[in-house]
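== Sequence, structure tokens ==
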Amino acid sequence: MRNYLVTTLLFLNFNFYSQSFIFNQKLYKSIENKTIKFDEIDRRVEESFNNRDINAKGSGWKVYQRWKYMASFEVDENGYLPNSSAINKMKVEFKESPSLNDQVYREALNNLWTPVGPFTYTNKGSWSTGQGRVNCSVTDPTNENVIYIGAATGGVWKSTDGGLSWSPKTDFIDSIGISGLAIDPNNTNVIYAMTGDADGANVGFDGLYKSNDGGETWIKMGLTDINYGRTILIDPNNSNVVIVGTNSGVYRSQDGGLTFEQTSEEEIVFQIAFKPNDSNVVYASTSNGDDTFIYKSIDNGLTWELKKSFVGVKKMIMATTQADSNYLYLLGANTSGVLNGFKGVYLSVDSGETFTLKNDSTNVLESYQSYYDLGLAVSQTNKDLVYTGCLNLWGSNDGGKTFTSLNHWGSVLDQRYTHADIHDIRTVGSNVYVSSDGGIYISKDNGNTFVNRTFGLQISQFYKIDTSPSTNSRLVGGLQDNGGFISDNDTWVNFYGGDGMDAAINPVMPNLAYGFTQYGGNLYKYDFNLKAEGSFVVSHPWGEWVTPLEISSAGNIYGGWKEIEELENRSWQPRTNNSNGYNIRNMKVNPLYPNRLLYYRKSAANPNFDELIYTDENKDSSGNLVPRVINLPPAPGMYAKTLVAICFNPVNPNIFYIIYGSKVYKTADSGKTWVNITYNLPYSVSYCIAAQGNEKNSVYVGTNLGVYYFDEESNSWSLFSNGLPRVKITELKINTSENNLTASTYGRGIWRVALPSGTLALENHELDVNKGGVFPNPSNGVFRLNVNINEPLKMAIYDVSGKLVFEKSFKSLTSNDEINISDNPKGVYLLDIKSDQYTIRKKILIK
């Protein structure tokens, strides 16, 4: 069994990035047998870009960087990507995750994750606006209002009103990436879905799934021993015959998908298609990694005959039409050469026996990324009306002889706009369906105008998010392909374009949100109060694909490149002076001390390992922060070098947590010593960590399969994912004032859950926010209360260990009352005021 998590379809990227690289099955076997390491894969791919302009739109560089970023989290302690054995272990341990006898888990059953969005949005600043990537779509042949789409990492969604509203259908299968869909023409309640992300390799293959009830429930069928698949055909004359195209040949089932038999050579199959009105005739476009081939079967896919070879053509896709069943169009492409690798549009008028070149001079690709996205379709009522697209949509009215550009990815106000990077084009009557990196777009007039029908699809792929510390109502995040989004009282705005990355809300000026584009190249700002368009702030030379962005409790805006830099007067100023030549990959600022930062990067002494660096309140003579390298726990393997995530305890500045390799560690002395708290955490891929800073020192970890909860009272981990789709969790944010946890996902948008009872943090928690105020805070230990309570009350102050350090009863409180606890050591304390009507809890700090 060779199902892969994120490594699926990696061969495709290799073959198209580097023409001389290994054939697909060799690479898959190398991953399965652990004979090629991640670093070697990365080295070979990056070498293939040496003579290419990586800044050019559609160069393929960004697509690879997206894959590399996500795959880097998966590297095991010896430097390998997970093979099928490792992935199966993850699935088993996830399904056996503890445990119903755990009190926190029992409570978690009542703490249901709920979707936050985005479901719809307003564009205020994006030059390439969209919501999430759709790989494919299919329409019920008996009712065009019933549409299914397959999202890259967001699953199958169904609409029964022509795309006006949508509902998710596959949130809890093992892989919710979808590459192919098919509806049984004889029983439209029967749906087949091919899992995995065959275009972007962002989620792995988990077999073919079948629904017998219109997508409500799913059964995992046969076809579990391949690496990926895309096209699914159901014989209209015999629904038990299901034919699929995979990376290792054509497979055919005679029992409705229960079992499959391979009927073709072991080659990459880009596409298969029935001849209209004759299901005995099946076409297949295939590749051996260097050349492409067109095969034809006249016995319903049992045997195949080669009809045409295209030497040096790396990819070939096909389209047929009911308007003339003998017509078969082809589109060939490379990712190098003139015209962005466009090799030609070909037409057969004799059912694939011979082909004529129609056009090899119009650059319909406009980019070198045909390995990633490419679509071709023909009108079902006009055999000469052809649509194609890679970056943008093109049309031909003369059977492919000439093509005209129908739209442009940057013209967001154009009535034909379909977002950049087109993965699939379909035609039904006069309807044209375009699936792209921005969503699903539908034309009712043969492509003259398009309507965005993505609204309602919560399929956004978030890299990072930040939430306002004072309220749930404000949120900012960065989306793959679709820029920066903010949410203000559940109203979403797309405030810049490109690839949105790390983002942050200023806690001092909470009306301001910021977001990076890829590599930290540009910083954008959104003002919640003005509600105007997002604005460009400043640019910077490239850093990491996801360059870290942090804002301190004092309002310092930090970015992490080779040095930590601070934004001053629309200019980045260095705040450290210890560059080792490697980019900073992650960075966190202490929530209590604005100059205490934690960050990591590769070690110059041994790039196979990471180094963790900490800055405290000390500064050098130039006013720069003084970093020190922290000794990490012993690495279990040569490549368990990878620091995956870091976070501070929000109330104790000496406590922070790291995910190192596959282990979770805690330090209580700023990195001098470490404790392994992995305990019973199931084997998985971890992406993020958040600490609550409460009495139990609760910690949450986001993985590829869900969220896990830990506390020091039980010293054990419990699954905390009730209602959460089975999707990668890329960021976790705790809002202690409202006692909930927000998660960003890579494919299912933003989700939120109430924290379990008994886990309230030592943080502001006010039942009447207008009644509590403490100033100055921080102070030397003498505080004044801006509180007016005209009834008896009790005041208590605790340190972070829960020890009572001050207690007093009052008949009432006024704004002139003073509290003196200056005889206590510096640190964080919890002020607790209780009366019959009011409960006020505030964090206070003695400096």
About this structure: The CA atoms of residues 407 and 416 lie 6 Å apart. Residues 10-85 form one domain.
